[in-house]
């Protein structure tokens, strides 16, 4: 394995910036201004390091909060390598077979968006890992314990010899955490994106039926608009289900509705959404049998949703209040 532990610092604008990705309008999460990375072996030993500052093209003015957190200056940005050159340098150093690992899951989406915007292959890297997941398996989180890089460094008693929020230093701190983990075993057992999505959808629900995963979609609303996702069939008789016109939120990234079979009664169809790479939507779907608890929850939540919609429509129809 060619394992690269990396960290990014990125700049943001004072106003959101959107871009078009194969017909879909996306919001730019940030423009990379610093990359720090270390190549490690299965024990977490550092074999090589990489560092580069980049000159942004879109968010050219250093945002004041980013300056405060990172300690970077406008001069640091202005003297950085051009975006495409700096990103290509990172790819060349890491290698086409690199598997990236980061503390959390924030940096890879930013990296892939930036690669696309400068005309490089956003499919790189093909594999990446969230080291927080491996850490929590070895050190289950207790109440009140933080998961920031600095708080975990403190918890593990790792000496704090360099500042945080500097890309290379953060990557080196992360590598030191790796040395305290069963790294090789954790990476070997790391679930695929499909497995993670199924896990998030089901949440130990043994009654769920017809579990399916749909990858690399561009439209967030495909769960209710795309035929291949939205066509659901009764797990008992195979007849197509008719969905209620209302889809309700389920958690931060889930939706569900009540769907009726003309022969077997009703079911609940659930979706879980993910945009792990910052560019594509992935969906997991299942069909669940009704229970008295599920029916009562649906009835209550649907009524509340319809009432909120009615009030919103009434306000929109009324228009701005007349000036006195």
TrEMBL record:
Signal peptide, first to last residue: none
Coiled coil (UniProt feature): none
UniProt GO MF annotations: 3'-5'-RNA exonuclease activity; nucleic acid binding
Transcription regulation is among the record's keywords: no
Domain Exonuclease span(s) in chain numbering: 2-189
Alphabetized InterPro entries for the sequence: 3-5_Exoribonuclease, ERI-1_3'hExo-like, Ribonucl_H, RNaseH-like_sf, RNaseH_sf
Keyword annotations from UniProtKB, A to Z: Exonuclease, Hydrolase, Nuclease
Record flagged with keyword Cytoplasm: no
Name under which the protein is recorded: Exonuclease domain-containing protein
Species of origin: Candidatus Gemmiger excrementipullorum
């Amino acid at each position: 394995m060619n394992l690269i532990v990396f960290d990014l610092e990125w700049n943001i604008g004072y106003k959101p910036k959107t871009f078009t990705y194969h017909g879909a309008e996306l919001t730019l999460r940030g423009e990379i201004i610093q990359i720090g990375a270390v190549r490690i072996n299965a024990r977490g030993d550092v074999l090589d390091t990489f560092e580069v500052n980049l000159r942004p093209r879109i968010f050219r003015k250093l945002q004041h909060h980013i300056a405060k957190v990172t300690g970077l200056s406008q001069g640091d940005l202005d003297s950085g390598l051009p975006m495409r050159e700096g990103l290509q340098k990172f790819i060349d150093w890491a290698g086409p077979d690199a598997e990236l690992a980061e503390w959390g899951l924030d940096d890879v989406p930013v990296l892939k968006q930036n690669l696309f915007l400068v005309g490089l292959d956003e499919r790189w890297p093909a594999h990446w890992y969230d080291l927080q997941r491996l850490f929590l398996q070895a050190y289950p989180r207790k109440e009140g314990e933080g998961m920031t890089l600095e708080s975990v460094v403190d918890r593990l008693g790792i000496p704090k010899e360099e500042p945080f929020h500097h890309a290379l230093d953060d990557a080196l701190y992360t590598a030191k955490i790796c040395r305290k983990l069963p790294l090789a075993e954790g990476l070997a057992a790391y679930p695929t994106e499909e497995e993670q999505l199924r896990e998030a959808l089901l949440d130990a629900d043994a009654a769920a039926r017809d579990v399916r995963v749909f990858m690399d979609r561009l439209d967030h609303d495909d769960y209710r608009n795309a035929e291949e996702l939205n066509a659901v069939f009764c797990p008992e008789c195979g007849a197509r289900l008719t969905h209620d016109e209302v889809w309700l939120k389920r958690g931060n990234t889930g939706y569900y509705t009540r769907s009726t079979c003309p022969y077997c009664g009703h079911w609940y169809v659930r979706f879980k959404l993910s945009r792990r790479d910052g560019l594509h939507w992935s969906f997991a779907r299942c069909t669940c049998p009704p229970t008295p608890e599920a029916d009562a929850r649906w009835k209550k939540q649907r009524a509340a949703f319809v009432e909120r919609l009615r009030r919103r429509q009434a306000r929109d129809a009324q228009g701005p209040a007349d000036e006195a």
